What does this fold into?
Amino acid sequence: RRRMRVLELYSGIGGMHYALIESNLSYQVVAAVDINTTANQVYTHNFPNTALLNKTIEGITLEEFNKLSFDMILMSPPCQPFTRIGLQRDLDDPRTKSFLHIVDLLPRLSKAPLYILLENVKGFEKSAAREYLVKTLRECQYTVQEMMVSPTHVGIPNSRLRYYLMAKRSAQQKVRIQEKISAPSTGPAEDAPPAPHICPPQDKSHTCPCSTQLKATLEVQKKQIQNSDLSVQQIQAFLEPQEDVHEPQHLLPPKTLLRYAQLLDIVRPSCRRSVCFTKGYRKYVEGTGSVLQCCLDTSVEDVFPSLDQCSEEEKVQKLLDLKLRYFTPREVANLMGFPQSFTFPESVSTKQQYRLLGNSLNVVVVAKLLQLLVTPELQHKDGGPH
It folds into this structure.
């Protein structure tokens, strides 16, 4: 069977390429395209034989695209125009220029690709960019499937809810892909907001007294539910061997512990959850990724309630006793589904490694979606998703 010719846009550190390997499909990446020079260094280090174009996508002409003669496009366009933290400028953001260039070229290609897979952040589904893409795809006779998937849905203990769009150019009936992705277990959806809570009417200048307490209680409940979901693996399966981790350089310093203790998301090796690792991991504390508790003799629940009654010195000591450390770049890569064969060149600093991983995607999730997109009938002998 002829190998499928794949064009990898916004290739980053090669997450989509690794997903192709993981999917067991017969493919050839005809070109990868990205303008991030550090990401390109990592890509070439891991895929030295793949043609990597270090240029802007909007700088690639229709003629050049046609010469590549691809059957599939994989892309993860810049997410900043659509993020909660970004300004959500959508189509007005100059970073969507390259994405619009691709969408505009689609109807004009001499040979339209059979398959398209796009990954982006939660928020993209409400954007004008998404609307424009779907409209163009439908006009070009593509069947479109959209969904939100997190690694926890495929048994990986990391929350990274992302939007996926899969398009197939075919007269065949639509495949109900959503049903084939392992559904999250019962109980509140992993990334779903807590049930609405109505506060008593009051002067708007005051914060509702029950809201902070309620939020904390709901957060604890949500973590308990996630940790009891046996369909998700434990964190320890993704950790480096203890002897390979140079612990002192990964331990949280006293200054950080003292200032940000209450904001940390702390997990133990036996946990079945961790929060999304972003490009700001280790640079910022809140919402950038979990930290690991290495000393298991004490529980966080025992330490935290008494902290307010302690002197600064006692406080630091109690927190240091927990031995809280950051996940290493290798461990973050493991949680994102990258294989052991994936490595960083020595020239890439630890800070850059976290940044690049935070901008990447979950390899296992994309691999499963690729299998379902290209071979919907492909299943395990037991009938479950392959």
User: Anything to note?
Assistant: The CA atoms of residues 142 and 170 lie 7 Å apart.
